[in-house]
Write a structure and sequence with these properties.
Helices cover 21% and strands 36% of the residues. It contains two helices and seven strands, in the order E-E-E-H-E-E-E-H-E.
Length: 150
């Protein structure tokens, strides 16, 4: 399971011209699922994201989590995080889980994020063409992979 985490002042996701999820200050999480992701991968990633200390404290040091600031999380599924560009210029998506496997994994990941955060987590519409808008704060952008755990 992979996630691109962005610290944001605000973010939203729309489908067919309608906003389906919106947050204020917090984290935008773009998440990709692979076929062999486990419940352990999901739970590790959700815990890691919610615990990341990437918000400034009173001394302007990144020392606070999204929970500490009372922030929100917006989750958006993104299979392209599993792109491979080893051969040629057209990415391969073969490492990404097919929709029938990825959709329930993404839903479970959103639920795990909500459980760790202690409040609901708005999300995009799985499989839809989405428009994501954000105001990146910093910018702070972090790449996480449940298999590398670094």
């Amino acid at each position: 399971m992979r996630a691109l985490v962005q610290r944001v002042r605000e973010a939203s996701v729309g489908v067919e011209g309608k906003i389906v999820g919106r947050i204020g200050a917090g984290l935008l999480v773009l998440a990709g699922m692979s076929t062999d992701d486990t419940d352990e991968d999901r739970d590790w990633l959700a815990r890691k994201i919610v615990a990341l200390r990437i918000f400034d404290d009173a001394a302007a040091v990144m020392n606070r989590s999204v929970v500490d600031i009372g922030g929100e999380i917006l989750a958006v599924s993104q299979f392209t995080l599993f792109a491979s560009t080893r051969k040629g210029s057209r990415p391969s998506w073969s490492a990404a889980a097919p929709p029938a496997i990825a959709a329930p994994k993404f839903d479970a990941f959103v639920a795990a994020l909500a459980g760790e955060l202690g409040k609901s987590v708005p999300a995009g519409v799985f499989g839809a063409t989405m428009q994501v808008a954000l105001v990146n704060d910093g910018p702070v952008t972090i790449w996480l992979d449940s298999r590398r755990r670094e």
